[in-house]
Amino acid sequence: MRNALAIAGKELRSYFVSPIAYVVLTGFLLLGGWFFFNLLARFDFLLSIYSAMRNPEAQARLNLNDFVMAPLLHNLSVVLVILIPVITMRTFAEERRTGTYELLMTSPLSISEIVAGKFLGVVAFLIVMLGLTGIYPLILLMYGNPEVGVIAAGYLGLFLLAIAFAGVGLLTSSLTENQIIAAVSCLVVLLLLYVISWPAETSGAVLGAILKYLSLTEHFGEMVKGIIQTKDLVYFASVIVLALFLTHRSVESVRWR
Amino acid sequence: MIEVRNLTKRFGEIVAIRDISFTAATGQILGFLGPNGAGKTTTMRIITGFMPASSGTVKVAGYDIFEDSYEVRKRIGYLPESPPLYFDMNVLTYLRFVGRIKGIAKAELSDHVDRALAQCGLVEVAGRLVGHLSKGFRQRVGLAQALIHNPSVLVLDEPTIGLDPRQIIEIRTLIRELAGERTVILSTHILPEVAQLCEKVVIIDDGQIVVEDALANLTREMSLEQVFLQNITKDRGVVDVEEGAAP
After folding, report:
1. Is the predicted ipTM greater than 0.85, yes or no?
2. Per CATH, which fold does B2-231 belong to?
3. Is the pTM of this model over 0.80?
4. What end-to-end distance do the CA atoms of chain A give, in Å?
């Protein structure tokens, strides 16, 4: 565990001494801010229309959770699909290219420690990244009265989604020494997981249910609505565990190839 | 201290090393020679546990590299051909990181780092970024990295390659100082270096050991250059020279 933390610390430091962290965080917050501003403006516009029309029923249905937070979290999840491959692409690929892999692999470390260290490093970075977007719900709380529980469930969903993405990113990075190949293959896998349920409605009951179950969006969508169900948590845990297990295998195969 | 026995490594169809065996005693500096592509780096990578052999065994300090890989890795310091450096770390942070993953207890870490810095002449550049250092200093950081956990075996893959003459002399002096009670395997192309440093010489050619003897025995009648040229095939695959014909 101590070894894993040493590697995690090194990973986290390497994000912040290179421009990567700052470019990624700036881009993420810039896009997040743009989404938030527009959703809020639209909410405000709808509110003024409904009150002008004296339509209390429609006005009652307007709330910050459904009209601002939920679409915001969905939009951020799309941005994560693009940014997380960039965050994880160097984890293993760069060590292999520069030869520092030889240091890691000839040190008295287990492969689990190496993989856990890399994973924790990325998770720590994601905590910073998602934590910074906490400013948006804080603004809502200061000036409005959204439901805090629903927001918390949504954020838990976004965080689990991000970690599952990171697991996939570690896996693709461990398969190659080319960072671009690592990033592109991660992006493709994440997009596939995102859209895999599209044919669900037309592909029969069983296949449709399977495709829906495999889709990240379905599980994430439930949590954004404020519903925390065991099946969704199990889904995310399975994706994370499977990705890390395969990463472990892939790293090990380099040693014993 | 190091016992290599019947080691063979295949990469698909290609046989990189074939049935090689040699030993190095405690406190000995062993010069590991051979032309490019002879299998030196492959052998060293197997000894350090970076990759497994196809068959054969390696024992380091009594531990088998396959069964007790962890124990062996704790006892080996390894400087690969290109030093495994993180260019975005400064020297001190880098050595502290390496010390931690080599299993040095937190309380002793500073002592180990200070010792390695002093041994390799890095005290003045401890705060500099590794990526900003000259090649000679990077090589020293690589050596410090191999030494940090005070290993009983040092495996150095061409430690003086690409250095200027003054730096070569410095690194050589350092290796001699380091030897002491350690076993050192040193691969190099520079024959005078072997003549100056090593007690024992192993020459590998086309994946096979062609010479294993004490330096004194080899150089009794001719220079090391002559021994080397006599024992290696001149153009591999073209000229068929009888192998193993040590004088």
Report:
1. yes
2. Rossmann fold (3.40.50)
3. yes
4. 26
